[in-house]
Write a structure and sequence with these properties.
With 103 residues, the chain is mostly beta strands. It is built from 1 helix and 6 strands.
Amino acid sequence: MTSNLDILINFEPEKGTIRLGDDSIIESCGRGTVRLMAKTSNGHVAPVFLQRVLWVPKLGLSNLLSWRTIVSLGKGFSLHGNGKDMYVLRENKTEVLWERLKD
């Protein structure tokens, strides 16, 4: 989910509702594809396309990624953590994405 309409490619208007962790409800107004430049722990950078990303104008300055949605794609991705490092791996254990928690 994102509140930034400018990053959505192939945007399609579509109304929906989202229940947040505090049980409040906000509206989604469409969906599209987002192109990310994903970095791995060895510094390699490559494009990753996230499809069906919801546009939620009232989300604020944050973007949210649903791990449940990624798993539901059935592509065999796994999420791993080690200290402050987080990794998304393909089924063959190759790294797709890496990020380090900021202090």
